[in-house]
Every structure is written in structure tokens, then in C-alpha cells.
Automatic annotation (TrEMBL):
<dbReference type="InterPro" id="IPR036388">
    <property type="entry name" value="WH-like_DNA-bd_sf"/>
</dbReference>
<protein>
    <submittedName>
        <fullName>Helix-turn-helix domain-containing protein</fullName>
    </submittedName>
</protein>
<dbReference type="Pfam" id="PF01638">
    <property type="entry name" value="HxlR"/>
</dbReference>
<keyword id="KW-0238">DNA-binding</keyword>
<dbReference type="InterPro" id="IPR036390">
    <property type="entry name" value="WH_DNA-bd_sf"/>
</dbReference>
<feature type="domain" description="HTH hxlR-type">
    <location>
        <begin position="8"/>
        <end position="107"/>
    </location>
</feature>
<dbReference type="InterPro" id="IPR002577">
    <property type="entry name" value="HTH_HxlR"/>
</dbReference>
<keyword id="KW-0804">Transcription</keyword>
<keyword id="KW-0805">Transcription regulation</keyword>
<dbReference type="InterPro" id="IPR036527">
    <property type="entry name" value="SCP2_sterol-bd_dom_sf"/>
</dbReference>
Length: 209
């Protein structure tokens, strides 16, 4: 493994997680929980299969992930973050926040997965913790869904769908991202093509003010 050879916390951290794709693997495991190799490949378009195997091995040797056999009838290996790996969540939160200005333009030919909005969604605030629990469903055109659950002042996310969301937002990735990040007013986003169904106030309950 390459090393900076410096006795510095930042350098030592980058020795472990600074290689290409490594933090994005952590992003996937934070957003999706335990993953198969194929789940990770789907969330990391562009990574070579052998490189993913190498990165997973390096993360396991560093104590950031562990692997286990899924219970029957699923015969596969699942990769999960260890406690040390989950401790990287604040690091990724800050990287996500720092990258907000870079998302202000449409992604063009960039690939996108709706669950990549998981990290900015986790940073949202429940402005009405006294109100009943709500579930918001996000769907980027041509992608899977992300659910944001809000209850008692806490905001949680998970990939997938719910049967009866309080409100749903559907549209192109840049409009979803800009709305969640507070760069675009909800009403303006709707005028520009974001589709809102359900309770308008439920969406406003978590959007940045």
C-alpha cells in the first residue's frame, strides 16, 4: 500500500482512505447498509470489478469493513461497515457540504443514483418536531427511490419505497439536489419541472430555511 510516510494524522488517514473509490465505497455502505459485491458495483458506475475487490480487501485489512455470509436462502457475501468505518460519516457529511456549490449546475453526462442524496438528506432539520411523523419519497428520473422519514425531531433515510408517502418529489437530479440543499425554493423548483405530490407543507418541514 502506498504511504505518504508522514507522522501526521491527516497523512495517516489518507494512507488508509485516500485512494480513488475508497470513500465512495464507504458512502455506499453508509447509505445502503450491508451490500453485496453487485450492489456496490451498481452504486459505483465506472469501477472495475478487480479494483473493487482490491479496495474491499484493503478496507477490511484496515478494520473499516467486515464481510459475512448472508443467511439462507441467499448464498452471497455481505459487506458492512465496522464501528471504525461508520465513524467516517461526519467526514463524508463535511465533504458533501463542501461540495454543495459544485452541484449547482446540471450534471450533464454524469451518472447519478438517487441514494447519493442520502448524505445531504441526513443533514436536514425537522423544523416541526411537535408534528406527527411523515415519510417523503424522492425519485430522480430513471433511478431508484430514496425515503426520508421524519419523526420527533429526527431525520432518517433509506433506499426503497413506502406504500403511502406523505409527499413525493420526482424530477431531474439537479432539481432534487438544489431543493434539498436549499439552493432553490420549492415553488421555483416546481416551476422548473420538479413534480410534487402530496402535502406541500410536509416537504417544507425539512427544507433549509
Amino acid at each position: 500500500m502506498r504511504t505518504y510516510g508522514q507522522y501526521c494524522g491527516i497523512a495517516k488517514a489518507l494512507d488508509t482512505i485516500g485512494d480513488r473509490w475508497t470513500l465512495l465505497i464507504v458512502r455506499e455502505l453508509l447509505a445502503l447498509g450491508p451490500c453485496r459485491h453487485t450492489d456496490l458495483r451498481n452504486g459505483l458506475p465506472g469501477i472495475a470489478s478487480n479494483l473493487l475487490v482490491d479496495r474491499l480487501r484493503e478496507l477490511e485489512e484496515a478494520g473499516l469493513i467486515h464481510r459475512e455470509a448472508a443467511p439462507p436462502p441467499v448464498a452471497t457475501t455481505l459487506f458492512s461497515l465496522t464501528e471504525r468505518g461508520r465513524a467516517l460519516e461526519p467526514v463524508l457529511q463535511e465533504l458533501s457540504r463542501w461540495g454543495v456549490p459544485l452541484l449547482r449546475e446540471p450534471g450533464g453526462s454524469d451518472t447519478f443514483r438517487t441514494h447519493w442524496l442520502d448524505m445531504p438528506a441526513r443533514a436536514l432539520t425537522d423544523h416541526r418536531p411537535d408534528q406527527p411523523a411523515i415519510a417523503l419519497q424522492l425519485h430522480a428520473d430513471g433511478n431508484e427511490d430514496l425515503v426520508i422519514e421524519v419523526k420527533d425531531g429526527s431525520v432518517h433515510t433509506h433506499a426503497g419505497r413506502v406504500d403511502h408517502p406523505t409527499a413525493s418529489l420526482t424530477g431531474p437530479p439537479h432539481l432534487l439536489a438544489a431543493t434539498l440543499l436549499g439552493d432553490l425554493d420549492l415553488s421555483v423548483a416546481v416551476q422548473q419541472g420538479l413534480r410534487l405530490s402530496g402535502e406541500h407543507e410536509a416537504v417544507l418541514r425539512i427544507l433549509p430555511r
